[in-house]
């Protein structure tokens, strides 16, 4: 029988349903799947595992009772599963008993309810984790249980309350219910564990009650059906007709309800899950009986979520032996495969995030840190609850604000890249909320041994109640700035072993570790065999362990080995991926450059004569430079206009005051600094666009190289406003004394020009001229991030900031490193 490995994997995911459901209802093991079929389909008749003996299994299969031969595939599956259960000691669910020799003990994540994120100081960039968690908490408290369950009630024929949510949760959508289900449940359960907010628990208990009543009202296929749409969608799915991932949605619902039981102790949630498992296992049996298992696999060649994951979790409760199952390479299915490894001990399933728990190798924690900081932390828009991304754009000249549309044909959504709190609910909304709810689940890991062991793998300000050791661990991180050369962290914690990760982006050369002020020998405490950790074992009592790691800039090549992309590099500072603020318009390509614009001159950085990245990227002292930032405004009737740089041609123009966080704020902010020192309001100043370090506004009112003409072309005289108003300023051209920057009035209010004293027609000092030549010095619309750098470009300078910190700004994360003379 020929079948794709992906289909086989997904078949395993659904066939699991029968196993766990039957155990709860009848206390009997019912197996529909076995490794043998999947094993042979993948062309592997022996995976080298000690518990697999193909010859012995073949002998056992030859003993299959004659009455079962040539019958349903399920009978053969059950027969082999029985043999597996006998040879492995039955369905005890003991991973330790079944794990192959030498596998070692897995690390256990610290219980979420014992970890609390700390806010840190107001100036600490590390408190971004606490702030992100609080923003998500606000959104969860905002969500209405009646609106979340509106479509479930309608489908069950029960009275609805209020109005439904929109987007992918809108009535009639085949993905409706996914957010209400697993995504919303998981994040609320986890958030309740992380914050202790009882309102969350009360709200989700109400959701479970409503879903339970909806399930009781269903009369589909006997019992247990729960969805926001009729079972005709599943009929279409099984007929290989168009159906939008109904099992993906079902998995989310089941996962959330199961979490309500395992995390919040809601027994009603477990009952609903078991009832659902019974219903869907019956569907799977009927499908295979009516057609073939091949049809089932074909139907499964679609998004199904992590069905095997939730069923393995259910197995840990029901103790039904499902160790004869196999999973493959779809990402959610891999999550289930991880759970299989933990439950039944099969080493072949060690994949993805849990590799660190199983191997204790720091490289997996490094990878997690990289994704956490550069991917997840920038997925929500600042402190706005319920505003998240569909995906994170990585192309040149992109912005989070205008990217994220799904493929054509899917339901309409917010026209921009950011979603909204009421009318979006993409699949990534649920994933995003879940991720922000689990910020504390991968900081601390526990290790069993003669002395309790603790692995600290993420530097996130937090407090951990280490109950097994009778200790409290407090972790703090010093605020990080681009000018720093070290990253510092410290923590206070009977006999215990504490291991702290040495990040891959640093080096032990120059690193300093102290215990209560006494320097430790890093050579003795950290080595390759220890997996990149500093380990201290002692009797802990009010002790402070402080780590100080070197941190520096570096580049990484794009993951493309084609020759035309060999110069494309990304810039990182420690674990932070830096993005260059760029105009939203893509460059015009020519015959010398790639058509995708990536290697066009506007993305090129000048690495001439640079031995390292430090030769063309320099840190910006944000604390001092922020004092030089300003936004210049004028009033025109009821409008407030700001002086800005046009993204079309680099000329000055007046624009309406932008919304905070928007890309327009970048172009309405200038760094005004005195050429020869002194105050901003002085005889000679340079006006530098915020996002173009090394560039300046010229007397022609267009952006160019600072001092490019060698004379007064980029010099302005900042003088008290000609209108005489307090706090206003006028900008006199250095190359044309008596001439000033002016903004036109009336219908042409967006135009910026030059007016000179003595020009006549009231331009020689009249009220209108003095008003047009005067600007109010307002607070800057944008400020430098603590981790800001300046990159030397071939055509312009680039301001680099952490990707996670950006909101609506246009940016690029890859640059072409070239050698050549920059414009002078």
TrEMBL record:
<feature type="region of interest" description="Disordered">
    <location>
        <begin position="89"/>
        <end position="109"/>
    </location>
</feature>
<feature type="domain" description="Non-reducing end beta-L-arabinofuranosidase-like GH127 middle">
    <location>
        <begin position="454"/>
        <end position="550"/>
    </location>
</feature>
<dbReference type="Pfam" id="PF07944">
    <property type="entry name" value="Beta-AFase-like_GH127_cat"/>
</dbReference>
<dbReference type="GO" id="GO:0046556">
    <property type="term" value="F:alpha-L-arabinofuranosidase activity"/>
</dbReference>
<dbReference type="InterPro" id="IPR049046">
    <property type="entry name" value="Beta-AFase-like_GH127_middle"/>
</dbReference>
<dbReference type="Pfam" id="PF20736">
    <property type="entry name" value="Glyco_hydro127M"/>
</dbReference>
<dbReference type="InterPro" id="IPR036195">
    <property type="entry name" value="AbfB_ABD_sf"/>
</dbReference>
<protein>
    <submittedName>
        <fullName>Uncharacterized protein</fullName>
    </submittedName>
</protein>
<keyword id="KW-0732">Signal</keyword>
<dbReference type="InterPro" id="IPR012878">
    <property type="entry name" value="Beta-AFase-like_GH127_cat"/>
</dbReference>
<feature type="domain" description="Non-reducing end beta-L-arabinofuranosidase-like GH127 catalytic">
    <location>
        <begin position="126"/>
        <end position="320"/>
    </location>
</feature>
<feature type="signal peptide">
    <location>
        <begin position="1"/>
        <end position="29"/>
    </location>
</feature>
<feature type="domain" description="Non-reducing end beta-L-arabinofuranosidase-like GH127 catalytic">
    <location>
        <begin position="350"/>
        <end position="441"/>
    </location>
</feature>
<feature type="compositionally biased region" description="Low complexity">
    <location>
        <begin position="94"/>
        <end position="104"/>
    </location>
</feature>
<dbReference type="GO" id="GO:0046373">
    <property type="term" value="P:L-arabinose metabolic process"/>
</dbReference>
């Amino acid at each position: 029988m020929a079948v794709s490995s992906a289909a086989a994997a997904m078949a395993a995911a659904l066939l699991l349903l029968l196993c766990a459901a039957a155990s709860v209802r009848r206390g009997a093991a019912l197996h529909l799947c076995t490794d043998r079929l999947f094993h042979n389909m993948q062309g592997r008749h022996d995976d080298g595992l000690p518990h697999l003996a193909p010859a012995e299994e073949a002998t056992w299969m030859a003993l299959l009772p004659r009455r079962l031969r040539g019958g349903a595939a399920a009978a053969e599956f059950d027969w082999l599963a029985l043999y597996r259960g006998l040879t492995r000691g039955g369905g005890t669910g003991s991973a330790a008993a079944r794990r192959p020799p030498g596998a070692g003990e897995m690390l256990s994540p610290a219980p979420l309810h014992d970890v609390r994120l700390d806010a840190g100081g107001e100036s600490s960039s590390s408190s971004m984790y606490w702030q992100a968690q609080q923003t998500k908490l606000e959104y969860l408290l905002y969500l209405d249980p009646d609106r979340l369950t509106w479509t479930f009630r309608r489908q069950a024929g029960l009275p609805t309350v209020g109005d439904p949510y929109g987007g992918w949760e809108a009535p009639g959508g085949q993905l409706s219910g996914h957010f209400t289900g697993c995504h919303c449940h998981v994040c609320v359960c986890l958030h309740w564990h992380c914050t202790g907010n009882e309102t969350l628990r009360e709200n989700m208990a109400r959701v479970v009650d409503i879903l339970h009543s909806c399930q009781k009202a269903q009369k589909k296929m006997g019992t247990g059906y729960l969805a926001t749409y009729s079972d005709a969608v599943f009929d279409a799915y099984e007929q290989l007709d168009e159906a939008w991932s109904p099992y993906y949605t079902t998995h989310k619902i089941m996962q959330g309800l199961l979490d309500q039981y395992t995390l919040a102790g809601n027994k009603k949630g477990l009952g609903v899950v078991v009832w659902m498992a019974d219903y869907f296992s019956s569907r799977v049996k009927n499908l295979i009986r009516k057609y073939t298992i091949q049809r089932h696999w074909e139907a499964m060649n679609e998004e199904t979520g992590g069905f095997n994951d939730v069923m393995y979790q259910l197995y840990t409760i029901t103790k039904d032996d499902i160790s004869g199952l196999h999973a493959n390479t779809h990402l959610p299915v891999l999550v289930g495969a991880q759970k299989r490894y933990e439950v039944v001990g099969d080493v072949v399933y060690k994949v993805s995030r849990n590799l660190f728990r199983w191997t204790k190798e720091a490289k997996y924690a490094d990878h997690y840190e990289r994704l956490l900081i550069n991917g997840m932390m920038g997925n929500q828009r600042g402190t706005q609850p319920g505003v998240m991304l569909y995906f994170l754009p990585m192309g040149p000249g992109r912005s989070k604000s205008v990217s994220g549309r799904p493929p054509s044909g899917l339901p309409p959504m917010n026209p921009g890249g950011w979603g909204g709190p009421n009318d979006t609910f993409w699949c990534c909304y649920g994933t995003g909320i879940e991720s922000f709810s689990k910020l504390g689940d991968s900081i601390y890991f526990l290790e069993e041994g003669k002395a309790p062991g603790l692995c600290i793998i993420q530097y996130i300000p937090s407090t951990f109640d280490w109950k097994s050791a009778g200790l409290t661990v407090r972790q703090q991180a010093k605020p990080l700035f681009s000018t720093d050369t070290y990253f510092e962290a410290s923590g206070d914690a009977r006999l215990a072993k504490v291991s702290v990760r040495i990040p891959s982006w640093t080096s032990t050369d120059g690193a300093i570790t102290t215990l209560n002020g006494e320097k430790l020998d890093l050579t003795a405490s950290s080595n390759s065999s220890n997996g990149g950790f500093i380990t201290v074992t002692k009797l802990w009592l009010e002790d402070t362990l402080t780590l100080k790691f070197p941190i520096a800039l570096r580049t990484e090549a794009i993951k493309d080995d084609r020759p035309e992309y060999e110069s494309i590099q990304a810039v990182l500072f420690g674990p932070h991926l830096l993005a260059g603020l760029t105009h939203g318009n893509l460059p015009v390509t020519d015959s010398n450059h790639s058509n995708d614009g990536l290697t066009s001159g506007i993305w090129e950085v000048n690495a001439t004569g640079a031995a390292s990245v430090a030769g063309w990227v320099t840190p910006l002292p944000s604390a001092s430079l922020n004092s030089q930032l300003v936004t210049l405004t004028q009033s025109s009737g009821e409008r407030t206009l700001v002086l800005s740089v046009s993204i079309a041609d680099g000329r000055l123009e007046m624009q309406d005051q932008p919304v905070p966080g928007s890309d327009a704020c970048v172009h309405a902010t200038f760094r005004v600094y005195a050429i020869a020192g002194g105050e901003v309001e002085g005889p000679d100043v340079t006006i530098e666009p915020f996002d173009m370090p090394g560039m300046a506004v010229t007397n022609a009112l267009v952006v160019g190289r600072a001092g490019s003409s060698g004379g007064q072309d980029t010099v302005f005289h900042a003088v008290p406003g000609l209108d005489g108003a307090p706090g206003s300023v006028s900008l006199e051209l250095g190359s044309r004394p008596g001439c000033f920057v002016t903004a036109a009035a009336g219908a042409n209010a967006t135009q910026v020009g030059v007016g000179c004293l003595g020009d006549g027609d009231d331009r020689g000092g009249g009220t209108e001229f003095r008003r047009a030549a005067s600007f109010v010095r307002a607070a800057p619309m944008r400020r430098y991030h603590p981790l800001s750098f300046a990159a030397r470009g071939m055509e312009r300078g680039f301001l680099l900031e952490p990707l996670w910190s950006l909101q609506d700004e246009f940016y690029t994360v890859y640059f072409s490193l070239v050698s050549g003379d920059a414009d002078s």
